Fold this protein.
Amino acid sequence: MVTSVTIPALRSHKVSTGKPPLVMLTAYDAPGARIVDGAGADIILVGDSLAMVVLGYDDTLQVTIEDMMHHTAAVARAKPRALVVGDLPWLSYHLSQEDTVRNAAKLVRAGASAVKLEGGAKRAPMVRAVIDAEIPVMGHLGLTPQSVHALGGFRVQGKEAAAVAALLDDAHALVDAGVFAIVLECVPREVARLVTASLPVPTIGIGAGPDCDGQVLVFHDALGLQDRVAPKFVRRYASGRDDAVTALSAFASDVRSGVFPSDAESYHAGEDLAGVLVDLYGPAPAAGHVPSSPTPTSAGTDVGSGATMLV
Ligand code: KIV
């Protein structure tokens, strides 16, 4: 864990200087941010992967700056210790420098401390403009999902010598423009190692092997919350979807068999009101199919832990 998660501390965070790899995870809402922060991540990325893992789109191109503001604000409300980076979505930094700075500022006003954008040398003027407005920028090279159509699909990048040379040029152009870190997505391990060794700022890999200065995974991938086939670089640390289906099936079963909620999980009228109700409406009718001494079958009996503070 980085002791102080600030941009200057991150900018010089190179594994080659004896520091441990940086830990970055995505989050898209307040409970997710609390979980990621509780796990000790250094950086929370409110990624535009939001489009695919939360909003149900097939690619990231559909997500808007308003979507990103909404979810960045939710993450920021958790007040995490980790640095919050907001992803600039497709077309929010392509039109003009002024438009780019305004969009980056929207994510900062939503609670991000920095923004991320995809692309290399051709995005350098936009990076400079955002940094001139005092907003730190993280770069993103290799597989850049916002270019899915131009790249011909979600494919490993940097597989030929010319592509590696272009990747190195792009990485240096971003560093010259002032980025404090660069995400390297889906490039061969050897290429990621070369880029990492040649840069003064940290690389954060996803599908780029272990030699980067940090690693990032998407929240839903790490927790096994998706049922899609995961790419080979995803390691699942939990079976979140299966566990959730099992738990909620128990709830459905408890409801259908009448054992949820139990009497102990119900509020009761005081004696005075109970008497008044009998006077006004007569004795309460029998409780239908609800067993007289219900016993919950599910694990959860934690009354009041959910939507309300009532106990
Ligand atoms: O949007 C995202 O989640 C990302 C990570 C994969 C780096 O850009």
Notes: Confidence is low (pLDDT under 50) at residues 300-307. The domain at 7-235 is CATH 3.20.20.60 (TIM Barrel).
